[in-house]
Amino acid sequence: MMIILIIVCIIYLLFIFHMLFWHSELKWNWDKIDTSNMKFSNSFYWGTATASHQVEGNCKNNNWYNWENSKDENNAPRIKDNQKANLACDHWNRYKDDIKLITNLGLTHYRISLEWSKIQPDKDEYNQEAINHYVDVVDSLLEKNITPVITLHHFTNPIWFDQLGGFEKEDNIDFFVSFCEKIFPIFSDKVKIWCTINEPEVYSVMGYFAGVFPPGSKSPQLTVEVLKNLLIAHTSVYHKLKNMPNGLNCQIGLVKNIMQFDPYRKWHLLDWIVCIVTNKIYNGIALSYLKTGTININYPFLVKLYYSSNKAALATDFFGLNYYSHNYLKFKFDKYEFFENKYMEDDIMTDMPYPIYAEGFYRAIKEAEKIGKPIIITENGIADYKDNRRSLFIERYIYAMHKAIQEGTDIQGYFYWSLMDNFEWAEGYDMKFGLYEVDFKTQERTLRKGSETFINIINGQQ
User: Fold this and answer.
1) Is the pLDDT of residue 14 over 50?
2) Do the domain assignments include residue 340?
C-alpha cells in the first residue's frame, strides 16, 4: 500500500512539474521594460470598432431586445440593474459626427457590424431602407479616407431566426448564408475586409453554458453543438463569398476571442484539470477547427462531439484576434459550476472584472500565429470608469503586440474596443470601454484623457 501511495505521489508531482514547465504563466518585469519609442511599419493600420446593437439604438427586432425585456426564473432582470439598450449611442443617426471623431483620433479603419434584424426583419423580407443606411455609412467613411470593415454577425439574431431555433440547429445555417449572399455584392466593391462571425465561443459559452446571454441555457453539450454550428456557418459563408464577384479581392476571416485559463493554485491537480477542460472548449475547439477542419472533444458526463470537414481547414484569410485578459480558475464541487474565477492580490483589475494582463495578449498572438494566417487584432480595450488605468493598459498591450511583430509575427492592424462607451451586453452601460466618454442623457462625446496615449502611439509620439 505504501508503495502505491509513493507511486501516486511521484506521478502527481511529475504532472505538476510538467505543467509548470510547459504551461507556465507568463509574467514580465514591467519595471525593466521600456514601452517608449515603439515603431510600426507604414503598412500597419490602426482602427477602432463598434457593434450595431451596442451603439445604433432602436434594435427592437432581435434576440437581445427580447432578452433585455424578459425576466429569469427568479423574476429578476436579465441585464444588470434592469438596463436596456434602447437608444444606445444613437449611432444610427449620429454616424457622420462619430466618423469625425474617428478622424480626430488619426485612425484609418473602422470596424462595424450590420444589424441582421434591421436588414432582414422577416424571413422573406429585406428592408431596403436599412440597406441604404449602411451604404451611406460606408460611403461616409470612404469620403473621410477611413477604411470600412464589416462584421456580418456580432451576437444578435433576428427574432424570426431565433424562433426557428437559431444556431442550435445546423439546418438553420442556410438562412445566415443567404443573408450574407444578399449583402456581400452590395458592398464588396467598396469593403475589402470582412469578418464573418464575431466570437463564436463567447456566443455559445455565455448563452448556453454561463446562461447570461440569450437564450440563457446551461448545457455543456449544447454549448459545443452551437459552437460547432457557428464554425460551420463561418466556413459556408467564407466559401460562398470567395466564389462571388470580388470575393477573391476581399479578405474574409473569423473573429475569435482568446482567453487563457490559468490555475489559481499551481499545486492543485483539480485546478489544472478544470483549466485544461475549459481551455479545450473555449479555445481548442475553434483553433483545431481552423487549423485542421476537425473538432474532437470527449469529456465523459460533460461533452462529446466529433466533426470533420475537408472544406474547413484554413478556410479563413486572416485570424481576427480579440483579446482582453485571462482568468484564474479554482475547482469547486458543483456539477453545474465546477470552478470559480479568482484573482491575485497584486493584479491590476479592470472594471469587468478581470486583470490587466498584457503578457496574455502576447501569448494569444503566439497561439493565433499557429493557424498560419495573417493576424488582425479586431478588438482590444479596457473597461475603466475612472479612466485611471486606460493609459497603462494601452501602453502595455501595444508593447506586447509590438514585441510579437518584432519577432516576426504577421499582424496587419489593430482595432481598439471601443470608439465610445456603449451597451456592454449583460453588464449594461456600467462598463466604460470607450475612447470617448458618452453622456447618455445628452449624447455628448468627450475624449478621455487616457485615450491620448493611444493617439500618441499611433502618431509615433510615444
Assistant:
1) no
2) yes
Query: Which are the contacts of 418, defined by CB distance < 8 A and separation ≥ 6?
Result: 48, 49, 50, 54, 55, 381, 433, 434, 435
pTM above 0.90, yes or no: yes
Residue 342, SS3 per DSSP: strand
Residue whose C-alpha cell is 509620439: 461
Q: Which of 354, 323, 209, 206 is nearest to 257 (CA)?
A: 323
Cell numbers found for residue 37: 519609442
Which CATH number goes with the domain that contains 63? 3.20.20.80
Contacts of residue 391, defined as CB under 8 A and 6 or more positions apart, other chains included, come to 449, 450, 452, 453
Cβ-contact 111, 149 below 8 angstroms = yes
Single-letter amino acid, residue 188: S
Determine, yes or no, domain membership for 284.
yes
- The kind and range of the H/E element at 303 are strand 303-308
What are the pLDDT digits (tens) for 235-271? Answer: 999 999 999 999 999 999 999 999 999 999 999 999 9
User: What pLDDT was estimated at residue 461?
Assistant: 56
Count the residues in the chain. 462
User: 301-339 pLDDT, tens per residue?
Assistant: 899 999 999 999 999 999 999 999 999 999 998 766 788
For the chain, the domain total comes to: 1
Query: Which range of residues forms the domain containing residue 405?
Result: 43-458
Kindly state the average pLDDT of the residues 98-103.
Answer: 98
Cell of 185: 455584392
Does residue 304 belong to any structural domain of this protein?
yes
**Angle of helix 200-208 versus helix 285-292 axis, rounded to 10:** 150
Distance CA 291, CA 305 (A): 17
Q: Would you state the pLDDT for residue 336?
A: 67
Phi, psi of 83 (to 5 degrees): -75, 155
